[in-house]
């Protein structure tokens, strides 16, 4: 009888230990997955997923309502740590809109053209640190196209050059910003923009000179 009782006790202990081990494994696996793949917002219209690597925090956004797909990448550094310690909420301010024109805007004549795509961020103002924004633009631009990025400074009513030679790869473009407002991508040089680098202005001058030379050569040929 005692032997049977001992076997029952041992069996119960084995079952309890097995359950505890299973619970610990499940808990650790669940927490690890949660850290790497944290769904901040998920419904039929908007899905925001946060993941982390050793050096980066990445937010991937799928906006089904607007048919947009984009991501944000923040480098882990002191600036970001300070912002997070101060409870700066960035998770829900990551939305953006892609527009083909601006209504009742002073930049209409320059921005509203077939080459331009306006990137309008829901958050306005400084970011906690620089961020890389990667946006799907396959419906607007072809792979291999090189784009220019400009900032619409509405306070100063001017267009400011930010970057050039931004390639379209696999339907996406990627650029870095530290401030959110309205930007626009374009396949064309905006001559009116402030801070255009000298090499862009030089390209324009060279193109004009080449055109003049070609026209002159053509006229001389016709005279002969």
Produce the secondary structure layout.
Elements: H1 2-36, E1 38-42, E2 46-52, E3 56-63, E4 68-75, H2 78-85, E5 96-99, H3 108-111, E6 116-136, E7 146-153, E8 158-167, E9 172-186, H4 198-223
Antiparallel strand pairs: 1-2, 2-3, 3-4, 4-6, 5-6, 6-9, 7-8, 7-9
How are helices and strands ordered from N to C?
Answer: HEEEEHEHEEEEH
Which class best fits the helix and strand makeup?
Answer: alpha+beta
Strand content: 35-45%
Discrete helix count = 4
Q: Compute the gyration radius: what is it?
A: 28 Å
Q: Spans with pLDDT under 50 lasting ≥5 residues?
A: 26-37
Distance from N terminus to C terminus (CA atoms, Å) equals: 125 Å
Proportion in helices: 25-40%
How many separate structural domains? 2
Q: Average pLDDT across residues?
A: 76
Task: Based on Cα principal axes, name the global outline.
Answer: elongated
What features would you describe in this structure?
It is a single chain. The chain is an alpha+beta fold. Strand 1 (38-42) and strand 2 form a beta hairpin. Strands 1, 2, 3, 4, 5, 6, 7, 8 and 9 form a nine-stranded antiparallel beta sheet that branches. It has helices at residues 2-36, 78-85, 108-111, 198-223; strands spanning 38-42, 46-52, 56-63, 68-75, 96-99, 116-136, 146-153, 158-167, 172-186. Mean pLDDT is 76; it is low at 26-37. The longest helix is centred in the first third of the chain and has 35 residues, at 2-36. It has four helices and nine strands, in the order αββββαβαββββα. It folds into two domains: 1-36; 39-208, no CATH class.
């Amino acid at each position: 009888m005692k032997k049977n009782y001992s076997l029952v006790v041992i069996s119960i202990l084995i079952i309890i230990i097995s359950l505890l081990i299973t619970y610990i494994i499940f808990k650790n696996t669940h927490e690890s997955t949660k850290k790497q793949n944290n769904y901040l917002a998920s419904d039929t219209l908007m899905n925001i997923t946060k993941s982390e690597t050793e050096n980066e925090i990445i937010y991937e956004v799928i906006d089904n309502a607007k048919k947009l797909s984009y991501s944000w990448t923040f480098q882990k550094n002191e600036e970001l740590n300070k912002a997070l310690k101060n409870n700066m909420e960035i998770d829900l301010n990551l939305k953006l809109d892609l527009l083909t024109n601006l209504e009742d805007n002073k930049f209409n004549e320059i921005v509203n053209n077939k080459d331009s795509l306006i990137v309008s961020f829901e958050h306005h103002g400084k970011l906690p640190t620089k961020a890389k924004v990667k946006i799907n633009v396959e419906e607007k631009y072809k792979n291999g196209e090189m784009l220019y990025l400009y900032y619409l400074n509405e306070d100063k009513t001017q267009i400011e050059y930010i970057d050039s030679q931004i390639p379209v790869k696999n339907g996406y473009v990627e650029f870095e910003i530290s401030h959110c407002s309205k930007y626009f991508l374009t396949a064309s040089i905006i001559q009116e923009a402030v801070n255009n680098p000298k090499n862009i202005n030089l390209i324009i001058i060279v193109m004009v000179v080449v055109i003049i030379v070609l026209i002159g050569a053509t006229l001389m040929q016709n005279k002969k």
